[in-house]
Amino acid sequence: MTDLSQPFPVPFLTTVGDFAVAFVLGTLIGAERQWRQRSAGLRTTVLVALGAAAFADLGVRLAGPAGSTRVVAYIVSGIGFLGAGVILKEGANIRGINTAGTLWCSAAVGAFCGCGYSAEATLLTVFILAGNTLLRPLVNYINRRPIDARATEAQYAIHALCDPADVSDVRDLLFSELEAAHYPIREIATLSDSEELVELAATLVPTNAKPDELDAVVAALEKAGPIKTATWTVSTTA
């Protein structure tokens, strides 16, 4: 039990120090997230670090190293629910994965602090900040490079514009032309629909398609009566 004869017992002062370190390190990580206007910013990151530190410290105080081990295990799994809340799916795009990863790492920083490993927590903070800042130029460089079908699995789509009355015939043409070119279709979706024009997109099963073959398919489609214009696009798979 804690010795209450002292106004500030040693374990309490240790806890104060651990919380202070978790607060400072969480602030550093959160300030970078807030600066970039992420969904989980300064306050969220600080609270995650402090909460993890508090639970880890409580585990140490109640059951020693064995208690901290159990608490840290629950922190690792429990923070996943919080991270899932910041991940958003917008159409084919997924946002928030990096933010969720940062929150997860912030919990690790707090757990280190709560267990009394301030130096290790500081080191982890440096690596987290490096990952979110120093790697950005490399990520931007890779993202701006043209998609190379030989280096990545790409997703191709054939787009066709037609009159609303010809939608059924155009669907059949897309199926027949792509089947003749040996490109299986995953789905045909309507991207836009108005009284004048309808845009259909035939998404192919992710594969390594040949641009010249897709150009030939597009040319054949444009020669068909119901189709006004046709083109193809490529994007990376999720």
From TrEMBL:
Compartments in which it is found:
Cell inner membrane; Cell membrane
Residue intervals passing through the bilayer: 12-31, 40-59, 71-88
Residue intervals of the MgtC-like C-terminal domain: 156-232
Q: Has the keyword Isomerase been applied to this entry?
A: no
* Keyword vocabulary terms for this entry: Cell inner membrane, Cell membrane, Membrane, Plasmid, Transmembrane, Transmembrane helix
Taking every annotated instance into account, which residue ranges of this chain make up the domain MgtC/SapB/SrpB/YhiD N-terminal?
A: 20-140
GO cellular component terms, alphabetically, are: plasma membrane
According to its record, how does it sit in the membrane? Answer: Multi-pass membrane protein
Pfam family, any one: MgtC_SapB_C
Lineage top rank: taxon: Bacteria
Role this protein plays = Virulence factor required for growth in low Mg(2+) medium and for intramacrophage survival. May be involved in regulating membrane potential by activating Na(+)/K(+)-ATPase.
- Family according to the record: Belongs to the MgtC/SapB family.
| Descriptive protein name | Protein MgtC
